[in-house]
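User: Sorry, what's this?
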Amino acid sequence: MRILLTNDDGYDSKGIIELEEVLTSYGHKISVCAPSTQRSASSHSVSIRDSVHIYSYSKDHYYCSGTPADCILFSFRSGLFVLDDFDLVISGINHGLNVSSDILYSGTVSAAKEAVLMGLKAIAISIETPPKGDSFNFKEAATFLAENLNTFYPLCTTHTVMNINVPHKNDGHWKTGSIGVLDYNDAAQVTKGTLEEIKNEALNKITLGLKPLESPPSLINNGYSSVTDYELINNNNISVSIIDVLPSLSTLHQELIALERSV
């Protein structure tokens, strides 16, 4: 296959480098356009006011000053790459999971979504952050994807993204995960200034930062009918999900139609 790689960790991150090495060893032809620096949690933001700069660092390999979605958007809109030349876009391997509600913030997943919006098939792949003292198993995750690519590729469409998450310890088998909601118990703490100043005095500012997690996130129980991706990871299973790129209509949409008709 002809595959374009991108990510949100930067073009020189180990995840994308090892992914390319493994995919190349399986006979795939690889091109790259990835952010010049770390752009995690940038979601699906694109640059509409600032110029985006793209630099070549080897043949068919580029880094981009913009967001992960910019990497895809500008690569094809500018004519740097031709859509019909590619079979697939793979975004990753991300340093850390993108499960459940994490996918809303993920630059990794959003780069894959941008590819789908442009008419390409796309896969996002992420790996669990290892315990302190251990290393990321990027080669293991890349090999899993390469070995299963012929199975997964027919399930990729031009309106969905396949989202793969690999736990640090796993037996190489995958299961289908639904999408849950995670509670990180985030706390924004004041790092400069005080809340009283900004509440009571004009033109004052405070600086905030998210308090580092002291415990793993918990899964909010919203009555899921099937096991979630987060639960699969906690059981050392590789999670594979297929998610819609465009938001799905709520079941309340039918009630809204009925209300419209009654007016």
